[in-house]
Design goal:
By secondary structure, this protein is mainly alpha-helical. Helices cover 68% and strands 7% of the residues. It has eleven helices and three strands.
């Protein structure tokens, strides 16, 4: 068993690591496995408790039954690069190639890495959503309008969130703008599948990762986190539906 000082430092690092992994969109199962893998390498006895808004790491002291408790809040987001880098870090620690101090520096470096620029993500989302439109038998005009409405809606949502607008309001407004933009196929009588364009206009807002994570958490017994993430996903889905409905109603009343 590691000394108290080393156990305290390792426990604090593991709490920061777990919160960072959860904030990047990792499942509770991956977070738990990665953390326990590193704890075994550090030679400490830990317990991880993951709650909807924060995680707790409990470390047993060198002697007696006393435990050190470290708690960190986390937010919901998606960063696959960070998940990959942090998972690789856990294997390096498990293989004895990283000490606690080195792992701390590497974790700070990973967290400091900037994500892809918004315009690249918006373009990629537009291409992906246009591909979904084609998958649903949309023609070239429908694909073009879906690409345009996705880029516009994505950019609007990002701008609103950066200005501290509530994410639910941002989703509703983005969905409304996307639906109105995609209706250009109807307005200008372009293409033969305008209905597909409108239906696919808000698909980029569907919270696929939260739904997947909620199912994974439920299957592995993390029922509280599964319920919280599922409700968050349902809330986002309802908001995009409201945005789509409002956009269609606005056009019908013009």
């Amino acid at each position: 068993m590691a000394g108290v000082d080393n156990a305290e430092r390792a426990g604090r690092f593991l709490a920061l690591y777990s919160s960072g992994l959860l904030s990047s969109g990792a499942t509770t199962l991956r977070t738990e496995r990665n953390m326990l893998r590193m704890a075994d390498s550090f030679g400490i006895d830990v317990q991880l408790t993951i709650l909807p808004m924060h995680c707790e790491v409990s470390v047993r002291k060198d002697k007696g039954n006393g435990r050190l408790l470290f708690s960190e809040q986390y937010s919901r987001g998606i960063n696959f690069n960070a998940i990959t880098a942090m998972s690789r870090m856990s294997w390096k620690v498990a293989d004895g190639r990283l000490t606690v101090e080195q792992a701390e520096r590497l974790l700070s470096f990973v967290k400091a890495q900037s994500r892809y620029p918004d315009w690249i993500v918006a373009f990629a989302a537009g291409v992906a959503n246009a591909s979904f439109c084609r998958l649903f038998c949309g023609d070239l005009w429908a694909m073009a309008f879906v690409f345009l409405c996705t880029v516009m809606g994505f950019w609007l949502k990002r701008c609103l969130i950066h200005r501290s607008v509530d994410v639910r309001i941002a989703v509703i407004l983005a969905g409304m703008v996307s639906a109105i933009t995609a209706s250009g196929c109807y307005i200008f009588s372009l293409g033969a599948t305008p209905d597909v364009a409108v239906a696919a206009s808000v698909l980029y807002l569907v919270p696929g990762i939260p739904f997947i994570n909620a199912f994974s958490n439920f299957m592995h017994g993390h029922y509280v986190c599964a319920a919280a993430i599922f409700m968050h996903a349902i809330e986002t889905t309802a908001c995009l539906g409201i945005g789509l409905f409002c956009g269609v109603m606005i056009l019908n009343n013009l």
